[in-house]
Inverse folding.
């Protein structure tokens, strides 16, 4: 049986930057799913400035301008089209803002269509799992309805206790909106805000994905 995974980059990244960071994770994915596996990388819809070398970066929404929530709904419309065009997806892997979006999408896909935002219009079934690297719960009031119901989809959380960008506390707040986190929170320490690729984190990822490899 073939598997299809959706991979979502972080804020002020793009697909190419994300790929350079996540190569060891991609290798674990291919090793774990011995059947045919398809990985789909999606670029966020909004411009988010440039790197020091002039490379354009993207965002799923503007974390500094939430007095206007139009962008998150534009992103949900964008992702609805992605789900219909490239899915169905078995799982979603996201980093930072992409991890936050992955959790939001998983939760919304669990709801009946009538209980979703009209911007998230898709017939895609619920995903089987989510992997969240430095994913977090957004704190803006306008988004709290996304977390009204605890997420039932299994989510593996990787939390950097020394992350200079996304605090441990913000990541923990996301775990609190997940129904079952027993054995699904991996804490590690790094001075960098990036996808972890240590032996510890790769082993934890492989154990988690193995639960779904034969399902």
């Amino acid at each position: 049986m073939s598997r299809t995974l959706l991979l979502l980059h972080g804020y002020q990244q793009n697909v190419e930057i994300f790929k350079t960071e996540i190569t060891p994770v991609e290798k674990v994915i291919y090793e774990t799913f011995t059947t045919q596996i398809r990985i789909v990388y999606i670029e966020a819809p909004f411009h988010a400035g440039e790197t020091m070398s002039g490379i354009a970066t993207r965002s799923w929404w503007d974390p500094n301008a939430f007095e206007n929530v139009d962008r998150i709904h534009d992103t949900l419309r964008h992702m609805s089209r992605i789900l219909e065009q490239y899915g169905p997806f078995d799982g979603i892997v996201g980093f930072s803002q992409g991890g936050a979006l992955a959790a939001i999408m998983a939760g919304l896909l669990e709801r009946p269509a009538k209980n979703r935002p009209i911007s998230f219009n898709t017939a895609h079934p619920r995903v089987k799992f989510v992997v969240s690297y430095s994913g977090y719960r957004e704190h803006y009031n306008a988004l709290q309805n996304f977390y009204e119901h605890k997420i039932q989809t299994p989510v593996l959380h990787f939390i950097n206790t020394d992350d200079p960008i996304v605090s441990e506390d913000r990541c923990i707040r996301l775990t609190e909106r997940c129904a079952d986190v027993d054995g699904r929170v991996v804490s590690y320490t790094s001075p960098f805000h990036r996808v972890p690729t240590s032996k510890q984190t790769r082993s934890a990822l492989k154990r988690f994905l193995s639960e779904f490899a034969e399902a």
User: Anything to note?
Assistant: DSSP finds five helices and eight strands in the chain.
